[in-house]
Structures are given as C-alpha cells and as structure tokens.
Amino acid sequence: MNAASFSLILAGVVLNAGAQLLLKAGAVRVGPLDLHLGRLASAAVELASSGPILAGLACYGVSVVLWIAALTRVEVSLAYPMLSIGYVINAIAAWMLFGESLNGMRVAGIGVIIVGVFLLARSGHGA
Fold first, then answer.
1. CA distance 79 to 74
2. Is 12 exposed, middle or buried, given 0-12, 13-18 or 19+ CB atoms closer than 10 A?
3. pTM listed for this prediction
4. Using CA atoms, how far apart are residues 114 and 88, in angstroms rounded to an integer?
C-alpha cells in the first residue's frame, strides 16, 4: 500500500471516528430518546436540530467518499481491517472527552489492534 492510499484510508477512518464522537456528544445533549410511536416525529426533530449530530452525519458522508476512493486503489481485504484504527482513536478520545473507562484490558486490546494494523500494512508491501 502506498502513502497516498494509506492517507485516504486514514483520513476516512479519522472522519468516521470523529463522526462517532460527534454523535455521542449530540446524544449526550439530546438525552435519552423516547422512540414510542407517538414521539418519533419529535425525536427526529431533536436529532435534526442537534449541531453535533448533523456534523457527525456530514463526517460520515465525507468518509464514505474517501473510502470509495481508497477502494479504487487498495484491495478490500487489506483496506477493511484498517478501519480498526478507528477503535483506537475512539477509545482514547472517549476516555479524554467523555471520561469513559480505559482500563488495562482495553489498553491491551488497543495494543493488539495496533500490532494487527502494522502487520496488515506491512503485508501490502510483499513482506
């Protein structure tokens, strides 16, 4: 995988991770949604008027375009596992931004993901 292809994948992953964080921020602001049939319209309005949720959806849109561009250059069997970088980004950012737990087991899992991504990236070089 060349640097341009990896950059497309990484940019898409970062935008996707950012989208998740924005959706979480919006969800915290909106609070628990009442999804009973009579409240669906008002829940939709609450979501549609939330800046972080709209920004998160926009990030998703851009990330899809970047992802498609990456798939025109890289095998999906190599590109798709790279999405796991998003787990690393989100775990650390959620810990920093929302005070979510980042215990030893999660840190160990993040380490395994990082090693796996490194090995996958190297496999694209014929190593």
1. 6
2. buried
3. 0.81
4. 8
